[in-house]
Predict the structure.
Amino acid sequence: MSGGFLSFFLRDTSDVSGPQGVYNSPMAKAKKRISRKGWALIGGTLGVLLLIAAWWAASAILESQKNYVLPSPYAVLCSLIEALFGPEAGMTYAAIGYTLARSLGGFACAFLVGGLLGSLGHEWPFLDAVVAPWNKLAKVFPTAAVSLILIVIFSRDATMMNMIPAVLSFLVAEPILYEGFRSGLRNGPSKDEREALALDAGERSFQGLLQVELPAAVGYILTAVASSLGLSIKVTIMSEVLANFSNVNKGIGSLIVLSQQYAVMPDLIAYSLLAIVVSFAFDFASFLFRRGAKLIENRKELSEKKDDRLE
């Protein structure tokens, strides 16, 4: 019975025979999607298992030569469990909290500033021209270089040193959010919505911005949030790693550096895996935002098609 159940998910339905109606039926399409997802799940699981096997083999070969630089997956798993549930687990969760606070704090400021400037830039092209060079510079300037510059500038100010990861999070997210707001306000509202807005409150009014233009731009804004959210956490951890050498001793990045300084390889890899898990959580949130943006756009297209048929 289990073989038949598995074959339903994994069989190839691309060669469905029969009448054209059966070939293109919703059931055939659903089975084809399930087949693709099933093979993707098995392929991904196999890839992870092969990676762990290669890691384990490399560790065993090095240990046989009295080289203990690469710990086994089991040793790293033990270190990870110890970090999360051991006597010093509080330090681990505090580090996660500091990293999340810096990343989300910088992202929140970027959302407010980017949203405000993007909205104003849409209404006043002169302001858009003034802000554009700053946003382009923030996009192309290496974030690692910015972090090192800030470390040198604020090397004697512990408070500002702790703020550097949040500043980096802001710098990478703000240009993306600015563009999302500006593009959404420019392209989001339909022609009918703009005509109704012009008759009701005027083309450029605060009331029209809040009631018509921003709601119509939600899809673009969610896409910008999805693009910048995952990037923010990665840059935050990276800057924590760099800033740790200047007495910033909190955050996931700092735990990674401390493990490297004391050459505790199982802890180093365990904290690195923890950083990957946190980044994955942000990437999953970004995925949900993208799905939400896609759903909003699909509903908008269906509504516009329905209005065209009624006309």
Residues 265-310 form the longest helix (46 residues).
